[in-house]
Amino acid sequence: MSRSPFLHPFARPAAAAEEFVTIVRGEGALVWDDTDREYIDGLASLWYCNVGHGRFAIADAVASQMAVLENYNTFDIFTNEPVERFSAFVAAAAPVPDSRIFLTSSGSEAVDTALKLARLTHSLRGHPERNVIVGRHNAYHGVTYGGLSAQGLPLNQEHFGPLLDPVIRVDSHDLAEVEAAFADHGERIAAVIAEPVQGAGGVYPPAPGYLERLRELCTAHGALLIFDEVITGFGRLGAWFAADHYGVIPDMITFAKACTSGYLPLGGVVVGEAVLEVIEADPAFILRHGFTYSGHPTACVAALENIAILIEEDLFARVPAIAEHLGGGLARLVDAGRLVAHRGVGGIWSAVLPEGLAAPVVRNAMLERGVIARPIGASVIAFCPPLVITDAQLLRCVDALEGALDATS
Length: 409
Ligand SMILES: Cc1ncc(COP(=O)(O)O)c(C=O)c1O
Prior knowledge:
Blueprint: E1 23-27, E2 30-33, E3 38-41, H1 44-47, H2 56-68, H3 81-93, E4 100-104, H4 107-124, E5 132-136, H5 145-150, H6 154-157, E6 167-170, H7 175-185, E7 189-194, H8 210-221, E8 224-228, H9 242-246, E9 252-255, E10 267-271, H10 273-279, H11 297-312, H12 319-335, E11 341-345, E12 348-352, H13 359-368, E13 371-372, E14 374-376, E15 380-383, H14 391-408
Helix pairs in contact: 2-11, 3-11, 4-10, 7-8, 12-14, 13-14
Pyridoxal-5'-phosphate (PLP) binds near residues 107, 140, 199, 200 and 228.
């Protein structure tokens, strides 16, 4: 047994090097390993590769930008043309009026940025005591301390010491707890953070009226509403943002992943008027927050090319087909008594396994059948395929799950 020099994220450090699957190339919704075995990428890698793999147009655009200016920082007085163009696009595409875009290299950095901007806004308004963050059970908001603290997956928080304080955790579906939090602490709540569709927690679309009520409560109590759209942003529900899909306008939106389809790391925050009017008010105020790679021009060029592909190939129009074939296929397995339940919306779905079946075991059996899906917890298998996936490939995802259920039951 040998040990990989690479300490893998979200993996067992004790795992042997032989246990890892080495992915060597990809095209569309397919990837291949180093034995030339083909897999359907049922999770768009890690919920991000919306335009599919092997896009030479993005590679070419990145190479051209690298040849001219690989990067130059955007702190203080510096800017670059790709970051201005990308920000202009996102500000126009996001349903947050008159927004501006702060950029990061990841979803976790985007979440921490949004949380800091929320507290900053209230503090500049003269209310530093308004510092409570409200998060939801089962939420995933990344792994840096802000997002780690706001999330609602306790296993991720274990052993990492004191977290950001104060955070109030509320039920993900039942509004009574949110209303109680506002009734008890309304004057102290800085922001509510919510994934419109909870992804990494197991794929939970919002209960009817939930997001609308969050908006009402935040508005009534002067708190900011943050939508964490790191998975849902850039097309997962067939719109640029889930906020559009659900018709609820937050004060900030975090995004990452599909903004470049993962070709280069990039994320950010759509920052709305409620924050901007405060941080722009004093001409001498300096926003002392930013990452070395905030506004990386090559990452922004990858994003712009990714956006061009999404538009030119009308890829959002593929989302109903994913819902029909994947969501419909999972529904059939539920009807046949093979699954306990299925959940999802648009291009993101999950299957709840019968008791006694372990999700990682089912995942491995699916791998043997040429499909990559993600096990979540003990009993959920998640799907979030590239938007370019074909109908036949979607049906193969369902067949592989059914075959894996047969093999492991
Ligand atoms: C909703 C949500 N927020 C934040 C993150 C963290 O993003 P990253 O892994 O890029 O830091 C993720 C990652 O899956 C996510 O799904």
